[in-house]
Amino acid sequence: MKYLNEFRNGDQARALASHIRKITTRPWSIMEVCGGQTHSLIRNGIDQILPQEIEMIHGPGCPVCVTPISIIDKALEIASRPDVIFCSFGDMLRVPGSREDLFRVKGNGGDIRVVYSPLDALQIARNHPDRQIVFFAIGFETTAPANAMAIHLAKQQGLQNFSALVSHVLVPPAIEAIMNAPENRVQGFLAAGHVCSVMGYQDYHLLSKRYGIPIVVTGFEPLDLLEGIRRTIEQLERGEARVENAYERVVTEHGNERAKATIAEVFEVSDRNWRGIGTIPKSGWRLRESYADFDAEKRFNVSHLQTSEPKICRAGDVLQGKIKPHQCEAFGKECTPRTPLGATMVSSEGACAAYFNYGRFVPLKELVRG
Questions:
Q1: CATH number of the domain residue 200 falls in
Q2: What contacts 110, CB < 8 A, 6 or more positions away?
Q3: CA triple 180-47-188, angle to 5 deg
Q4: Considering the domain boundaries, does residue 221 fall inside one?
């Protein structure tokens, strides 16, 4: 119970946790889709104040973690070229490729720059007309509007030295893939509020109805997560399956129409490979043909690169909720934040990083029982 002292409003947290315990009559498995939610759950010990019957399964909603190793190797190949300034968010620099990461390329002389917005990369392109500027455009639906706008502006302003290496993925197809997996144990989902703030949650109604699962849109603060869990458990206990919005201060059913229009202009839906998981049909975005001139894969002819995952790394099983991070044989041994085998150990939203940083080498519930 010591974790409750960390909540911004301890009384509300206690009341929610107590209510969840009262209404839970049987085992339930709930997946939080977003890696940011995973870190909040583990950092604040929320999973430890829930009743034993509730298992939180950590989902694949970490954009860094699911960026396929083939895309990382393409980024490494492009970033190594002397005429390129490679621009990326900082959390991608330590993600391992087949042999190295972007930090290693930077140490070997590659011009790699950390940016905080794709518009920063555009400004670099304006400042360096004699260099090729490549922006690493990754993420779920949350980062897509800004990335699409940057590519749109590059075309509008005639910045021929700007291109994007795109690896965007979508949440609803990932939920569908999880539910279709033969070993699936998920009975309800916490949907990511920031994704739904862009796209809305109308697409989740069909998923909820098709698979008979409650889906509750929620945020990232401890109280938000507890409220999302409460609503999910109440539906499960009553035998209901519908979409609820527990994040009304941010999310509407249809999302941000202007943002969606910008995405639709620049991107089109495509099959997408997920690191450690494989190809999920219609689970990503690629540049439309009208923006093909800004496709870094085509510009630098790196589409042919073939790679494979290290066999010892079980990040794919972690991302699909098949195992907890500490159940991987390499966790905390061959694989640490200083020597990562997979992206889940280095990403700020990775489940393995959360378990390592907050000491979850053994589940605390098992220690309590012992």
A1: 3.40.50.11740
A2: 79, 80, 84, 86, 102
A3: 25
A4: yes
